[in-house]
Amino acid sequence: MKRQARGKARPDRANRMDRTDKQQKPVRKESESARRGSGRRVLAAERTQPNMEQATEQLEGRHPVIEALKSGRELNKILLAEGVEGGSSNEILARAKERGIVVQRVPKAKMDSIATTRNHQGVIAYLAAKEYAELEDILQAAQNSPRPGLIVVLDEIEDPFNFGSILRTADGAGAHGVVIPKRRAVPLTATVAKSSAGAIEHIPVARISNVSQTLELLKKAGYWVVGTDVEADLLYHQADMTQPTVLVIGNEGKGLGEVVKKRCDYLVRLPMIGQVQSLNAGVAAGILLYESVRQRGSKK
């Protein structure tokens, strides 16, 4: 791959899809001998993921949830018992749809086990630890900054401790914001807030409906997208991060989805010399964020 300015690999945007498609490789299959004994590969992803709503304050009952929706209170998700229909439940569904809040139908027995009171009335809402930002706000903050834009997109991160760690590192590295999907990802919970060591109060977090579409929007706004993939040809320091950059970090177990990979301008990997073949998502994010700091210079 030819390098351009500053000796960094920088693909032509018009040929983006052709180049990223060439970077895709089939997942390598391990031999029987590699799966046995001390030579067995061990993935660094956590084996057991915590509950994604862990340590989140919740509202129970139809009236409290409706009032929270009316007031504009920031909600991560609403649980609605199966079979609950009509009346106030229709109002909850309509207001949640208007605000883009996820509503999940669950069995009544599960609602009973989740509830902290006996009067949940088939409705439980999870409160966010902090108000979410809009993606446009993050883009505007980056535009007003003396530094090139730096945005972190998390593709279905499930561990609240990883999320909190990434928020802390993103703030330290001067990122302008973090973007997460509304579904299949940990939201801003109390556990995330605690593990961020206060960074949650300083770095904006936006929720979006579709990661792939959001990456396309960011590219149209002038950003170059760097994704992580253990099979990538480029090492992490070979991607030019001096320009407006989006860093995409994948799920702890499966990594980036294939559709998301195809939206990346660069796919990069971290060199793994030992037996472990991947790093914790929070650690990987930290290495990439501080590589961007190194390339841009450490001045604020």
UniProtKB/TrEMBL annotation:
Any GO MF annotation of the entry: RNA binding
Keywords: Methyltransferase, Transferase
An annotated GO cellular component: cytosol
Annotated region (Disordered), positions in chain: 1-58
UniProt-listed InterPro entries: Alpha/beta_knot_MTases, Ribosomal_eL30-like_sf, rRNA_MeTrfase_TrmH, SpoU_MeTrfase, SpoU_subst-bd, tRNA_m1G_MTases_N
GO BP term, example: RNA processing
Pfam families: SpoU_methylase, SpoU_sub_bind
Top-level taxon of the source organism: Bacteria
Record's compositionally biased regions (Polar residues): 48-57
Domain RNA 2-O ribose methyltransferase substrate binding residues, every copy: 58-133
Compositionally biased residues, Basic and acidic residues: 9-35
Family assignment from sequence similarity: Belongs to the class IV-like SAM-binding methyltransferase superfamily. RNA methyltransferase TrmH family.
Record's protein name: 23S rRNA (Guanosine(2251)-2'-O)-methyltransferase RlmB
Source species taxonomy: Bacteria, Bacillati, Bacillota, Bacilli, Bacillales
